[in-house]
Amino acid sequence: MDLLADTHLHLYPCYDLDRAFSRLLDQLGGGALRAGFLAERADCHVYERLRLGDILLRDFTLEAADRRQLILRRSSDGSRLCLLPGRQIVAAERIEVLALCTDALFADGLPATALIKSIRAGNGVPVLPWSPGKWLFQRGKVIDGLLRQFSGQNLLIGDVSLRPAGWPLPPLLRKARCLGYQMICGSDPLPFSGEEDKFGSCGSRLTAAAELEPDALLRALLQGKAAASSVGRRSGLLELLRRLRRNAAVRRAASSV
């Protein structure tokens, strides 16, 4: 089976969710089941609000909802979208760790090693996502230590649209591949209006011989029973600089309030 998925999605209050989910469907393309793996920040609980019916969508109907996944259907063409819960956590070492395929909550500030073990103990899928500036210097040493401490059967590596298109693979991502880690891709949209258009722009095609649910397919990557390849495109350098500059301006405005 094939699954087209954006494996690094945030849902922020400033987003138009109908626009975001439509962009996700359209930019992932057709011909396979399409999914979004959420990595919500500690102060965001959109998945839970959608599940409980506290958020109503204009262009989508909620066909199925439980703690494992949501199934949305777009009214205009009947396209189906699977959303899976997950969290983004900031470890004590100031690196980000994703806990995919789980609605469990994890406190920011835990040591990265303990956090990854906690995610696995809770049946989540831990991911170390690449991030601009956060895989360098002292934090780069932390990432390097985690790659040596764990294995490709314990966690996945994440590539994102914030790594400039055309740039060579950074050394730690190359090392992760050499050590046998599977890499998945996602858009990692930033927290300001308009970033909904990035949904589905950068993602993964997940492939397995067996018919599996999206969460089981992601776990099959850890077991060596599935493969992942990148789809879409990452941001070009100028586009990335505009996105980061806008993000910095939004953060400055928020801190001044």
Protein described:
The chain has 257 residues and is of the alpha/beta class. It has one domain: Alpha-Beta Barrel (TIM Barrel). It is built from seven helices and twelve strands. The strands form two sheets. A seven-stranded mixed sheet has the order 3-4-5-2-1-11-12, with helices on both faces. Strands 6-7-8-9-10 form a five-stranded mixed sheet. Helix 1 links the parallel strand 1 and strand 2. The model has no long low-confidence stretch (mean pLDDT 96).
Contiguous low-pLDDT stretches (5 residues minimum) are: none
Strand order of the biggest β-sheet: 3-4-5-2-1-11-12
How far is the first residue's CA from the last residue's CA?
49 Å
Helix content: 25-40%
- Which strand-content bin applies to the residues? 25-35%
Secondary structure category: alpha/beta
At the fourth level of CATH, the homologous superfamily is Metal-dependent hydrolases
Helical region count?
Answer: 7
